Amino acid sequence: MMEQFKANSYLFGGNAPYVEELYESYLDNPATVPDHWREYFDALQNVPAVDGSNANDVAHAPIVESFAQRAKANAFLSRVGATDMAVARKQVHVQSLIAAYRFLGARWANLDPLKRQERPHLPELEPAFYDLTEADMEEVYSASNTYFGFEQASLRDILKALRDTYCGTLGAEYMYISDPTQKRWWQERLESIRATPNFSAEKKKHILERLTAAEGLERYLHTKFVGQKRFSLEGGESFIAAMDELVRRGGERGVQEMVIGMAHRGRLNVLVNTLGKMPADLFAEFEGKHVDDLPAGDVKYHKGFSSDVSTAGGPVHLSLAFNPSHLEIVNPVVEGSAKARMERRGDLEGSQVLPVQVHGDAAFAGQGVVMETLNLAQTRGYGTHGTVHIIINNQIGFTTSDPRDSRSTIYCSDVVKMIEAPVLHVNGDDPEAVVLAMQLALDFRQEFKKDVVVDVVCFRKLGHNEQDTPAVTQPLMYKKIAQHPGTRALYAEKLVTQGVITAEEGDAYIKQYRKAMDEGHHTIDPVLSNYKSKYAVDWVPFLNRKWTDAADTAVPLAELKRLAERITTVPENFKLHPLVEKVVNDRRAMGQGEHALDWGMGEHLAYASLVSSGYGVRLTGQDSGRGTFTHRHAVLHDQNRERWNDGTYIPLQNISENQAQFTVIDSVLSEEAVLGFEYGYSTAEPNTMVVWEAQFGDFANGAQVVIDQFISSGEVKWGRVSGLTMLLPHGYEGQGPEHSSARIERYLQLCAETNMQVCQPTTPAQIFHLLRRQMIRLFRKPLIIFTPKSLLRHKEAVSNLADLATGSFQPIIGETDASVDAKKVKRVIACSGRVYYDLIAHRREVKSKDVAIIRVEQLYPFAHKAFENELKKYENLTEVVWCQDEPQNQGPWFYIEHHLMEGMKEGMKLAYAGRPASASPAVGYYAKHYEQQKALLEAAFGRLKGATLVQ
Which Pfam families does this UniProt record tie to the protein (predicted)? Predict the structure, then answer.
């Protein structure tokens, strides 16, 4: 058998991929390779690797090394004749040609409907590159490692099969995938049909009907609403046929929900022709009706929608996410929403919920959030078991059609190779190929639960919007576009030629769609108007609620002690680190009333009480398990076992027998994508407390788009309710400009119409009640909490169990020192956050008894009545000073000034005590920090000396 192998094999460097692929097949299933190869690979299992280890540990190195040594020694030539050797060499060359087409064939595919560029020079795809000539074309070679339907064939037939499969209107990229099973899946699916669809006449008619709908809507809007922006899909109509196939086939493959994210291009078309939005409702938006539905509202091509569509496999719920203009920022939001829906269903493998992302070509290559979101795909906390990505590749972006200016890669999709997602490039002028690509993409996702990309190469008939004149910047491209008859017309002509329809039938499709538009009817059938899934969330209890600070957040003392016992219980033989062991022991004492509660204990008891009451908690961030400042320790680590070997224990998951889910995740080092993900999760799950924690408060700067365009404004723009909580460590500790400030001023600038809550609690009891209030009140608003650093262990920043068993969150905390004589008080210092503890320490130092200190714990919405009531306690009050750590142009000052004045009586003076205005959040030298801190404290108590007088 070895002689047979030697007579039919020869390897040199250029053919290494072929043998390596054989070896991968052997490792996966030895029966899939020819007998002589299997014998050889069996023998190699005992060949030692270069480092002396067993060859099984190094899959490819022994193979390559073994053949290299044989070639050097002329081992083959000494045993076989020259003629046999020449035939063997030709056979290996043929296998190399096959491998080359699998790797590079997409580069020669017929993808561009405008045919603007010549096929690139790729000698690896020419037989001559492998010394194969015209004389070899009729020779018969083995094709046993292919799925073309023949074991051997002439070189001419093999070459034709390769070009039909990999160089037609569908070009596939998948050979960079490391899993041989997935690679073989693609080879079998593509090669067995030559990447060519074979649809029935009825299927072809349905595709034409969908193309007619896509084109018909655009032309109807173009004539009825002249000059209005709609971001037309014209030139990319095959995308609607692809979406239709995704929904229909998805239902047959078990998908019950799809969460869809997309930017402007083609969005109105998807709303009407995929989700079934009534055309009459869309027209009303064009005509400016329903302007009072939302406080702010948004343009029609940003709005979301949901519907239920009937498929052969059952109803499929479609949800199109609301999104702003910021290109790809909706990507992580969609993933988060999909994750929440999966967990609600108990869909552990993602078989029932499918995320779908629709991208533009230039944005997909250019926006960093795309890479950040892709990087979440296979992680435990954020993975959604595969997303179907569709790129509407109109080859121009905004005005940059030259790839040299829009990206540094061959394809706009190349970033997905980082997660080994396969890509199907397809010519948008071949709608059948587009539909086939979508079938393959969905089947792959459902089979392997991995991301997959369909890159629909098309064009943009009009400008970026309908008011642009694109020929100004792309004259030659738009000359070709002007000559293009349209995808629908080309396909209708093709079907007429095939005898599938008559020309009159093709025209009837157009008239029928136009009639539906005129009457404002559904354009897809059937939309299930009265269907409601048992997994649907009822948001009604959370809507149209007026703001209130009141909530019954107290927990009975006995229950607090039980919760404390559960969160300090560690399994037997679980070895804690000595530092963590001390934390756990201290918390046990706190729960027994022997020690005052610190911040970490107050936070833990809040989470424990929520999950015990049926509210889920999802806590994520870059160091959330331990806590950046090692205060939390929600995840305990056994010092004798690795974390992946049952080496962790999470007490908050073991509170009660039927408790809600507690999830804590140390996230990837991303802010934008992770915060977008958590926002998306919160919009789909109101009964889970979703918490994102920045490692340092200023890290949220990297997610500013999510904060500006979703968190602060999503409700007034779209009516989209979210209870997302953000924990942002904040505090001036003299450690330099970075990480001192969470930029309080930015959040306060975004506040209006009670759109969110901005709080800076100063005690463990306050964080306990604040976190509980967020879930117990029957409305959901984003909550921004500026959490402390040094206060986490400050000896005065403590509470006791009684504070948790009674009371509630206090937006304003008045003077707590009984030695301060209210009748003598002429000055009140108002402040927020850690500076309070500096102020009371300074007051003790200067022995002041006539200055009261008020803490503003909730900056927005400002508790005017509570603040006014505190001022009323001091009948001789003449001065109010706002004191803050932050520079004057930062922090709460400019926001809070008018709120303070509103509670003051006529004749009172208002002053500012704090750092001077600064371009940097904080100074970098500790000595200068200390000097500034001393000055602001003295100004706060100095009878307006050193303070900035406002009135």
Answer: 2-oxogl_dehyd_N, E1_dh, OxoGdeHyase_C, Transket_pyr
- The per-residue pLDDT for range 758-810, each reduced to its tens digit, is 999 999 999 999 999 999 999 899 999 999 999 999 999 999 999 999 999 99
For 68-72, the CB contacts below 8 A with 24+ separation are 70/11, 71/11, 71/12
Q: Which whole number is the average pLDDT over 67-74?
A: 47
Per-residue pLDDT, 12: 40
Q: Give the pLDDT score at 51.
A: 43
CB 570 within 8 A of CB 633: no
- Asked if 647 and 637 touch (Cβ cutoff 8 Å), the reply is yes
| DSSP category for residue 527 | B
Q: Per-residue pLDDT tens for 333-374?
A: 999 999 999 999 999 999 999 999 999 998 999 999 999 999
Tokens of 309: 């569509």
Query: Which CATH number belongs to the domain containing residue 309 in this structure?
Result: 3.40.50.970
Q: Which residue has the tokens 């639960």?
A: 449
The mean pLDDT of the chain is: 88
Residue 25 and residue 52 in one domain = yes
Q: What ranges in 367-502 are assigned the alpha helix state H?
A: 368-374, 403-406, 431-448, 475-483, 487-498
So what's the pLDDT on residue 30?
75
Are 127 and 235 part of one and the same domain? no
Over residues 619-642, the mean pLDDT reads 92
Examine the domain organization and report whether 663 and 796 are in the same domain: yes
CB 700 within 8 A of CB 665: no
Strands 305-311 and 314-320: antiparallel
Q: Which helix (H) or strand (E) holds 690?
A: strand 688-693
Would you call the peptide bond into 526 cis, given omega within 30 degrees of 0 as the criterion?
yes
| H-state helical runs in 777-820 | 801-805
Q: Read off the tokens for 320.
A: 């199109």
13, 75: one domain: yes
Global confidence as pTM? 0.89
Residue 475 to residue 7: CA distance in whole angstroms: 60
Phi, psi of 759 (to 5 degrees): -130, 150
Closest by Cα among 376, 390, 364 to 336: 376
Q: Are 551 and 772 in contact (CB under 8 A)?
A: yes
Report pLDDT for 293.
66
Query: Does 820 lie in the same domain as 799?
Result: no
The whole-angstrom separation of Cα 571 and Cα 563 is 16
Query: For residues 690 and 681, is the Cβ–Cβ distance under 8 A?
Result: yes
pLDDT at 98: 96
Q: How far apart are CA 271 and CA 277, in angstroms?
A: 5
Query: By the 8 A CB rule, do 618 and 691 touch?
Result: yes
| CB 89 within 8 Å of CB 6 | no
Q: What per-residue confidence (pLDDT) applies to 386?
A: 97
Which amino acid does the sequence have at 603?
E
Give the per-residue pLDDT at 406. Answer: 82
- Which whole number is the average pLDDT over 466-490? 86
**How many residues comprise the chain?**
951
The answer to whether residue 476 sits within a structural domain is: yes
* 817: in domain: yes
Q: For residue 256, what are the domain limits?
A: 201-519
For 378, residues 6+ apart whose C-beta sits below 8 A from its C-beta are: 419
Query: So what's the pLDDT on residue 7?
Result: 37
**Confidence check: pLDDT of 460 > 90:** no
Judgement on whether residues 699 and 609 belong to the same structural domain of the protein: yes
**Minimal CA–CA distance to 687: which of 624, 808, 768, 774?**
774
Contact 570, 654 (CB under 8 A): no
Same domain, yes or no: 406 and 461: yes
Q: Is 547 inside any structural domain?
A: no
| Number of folded domains that form the chain | 4
| Amino acid identity for residue 287 in this structure | E
C-alpha–C-alpha distance, residues 415 and 576, integer Å? 42
- Map tokens 């094999």 to a residue: 9
What is the distance between the alpha carbons of residues 797 and 801, in angstroms, rounded to a whole number? Answer: 14
Residues 777 and 828 both lie in one domain: no
The pLDDT, as a whole number, for residue 76 is 38
> Which pLDDT does position 256 carry in this prediction?
97
